[in-house]
Write a structure and sequence with these properties.
single chain; 252 residues; alpha/beta; Arc Repressor Mutant, subunit A; Rossmann fold; seven-stranded parallel sheet; 42% helix
Length: 252
Amino acid sequence: MNFQNRKRLILQTVEERGSADVRELADLLQTSEMTVRRDLVQLSASGLLYRTRGGAMKVSLATDHFHFANKSAVRSEQKDYICQLAAREIQEGEVVFLDCGSTVFRLCPFIRNKRISVVTNSLPIVAELMASEVSVNLVGGEVDKERQAVHGLMAEEHLVRYHAHRAFVGVDGISLQHGLSANSEKEASMTIAMARQAQKTYLLCDSSKLETNKYLQFAPLNLFDVLMTDPDARPEVVAAYRQAGITLVNEL
């Protein structure tokens, strides 16, 4: 069966059932699980479904809003790789800040069995970790329905009351010349607030965002301690960042 036919059946199955795992899709398509995983990567990258651990989910069910789930599904392989790097840093008993970034969201499956405390402004992260070993603290404030996150002055004041061992934050753009940039002032202010209250801040940033600049330039590169990205980052870019004194990690 060619990819187009497999694609049609996979999307039809996920649409009808809401979700499906790799094994049942392999049985349905009469193909290998490896082929199914490869197909799911392509469909996820196109925003047609949301990859889960061991299968796929209908995008509209992944969160209450299509936009965030769709964004999280883009470059999912790279984001999951970065999150594996990040999860290795977190120790039992720690307090961790997680922002509302789509890459940070994908950290959830890798930490759900850790006995840690998570402070976050992300509603999807709260939903993902509710039935896990993780203790969850949702930041209070104004809910941004589109972003599925809590922002605003009250949210920032909430964060000031806490100190974390580590903060994991995302960014829309980063460059050696202009530092960190974002598409929203709300998200930028929460990133800064988390970084200020954490002993160590990790920037989770897939390689497509390196050397890009967005609408709002909001912080210098010294806001974070470690930049975590994926192996697709161009070697010359990696070398330039390290030469600039940035701790960059992109290998497991």
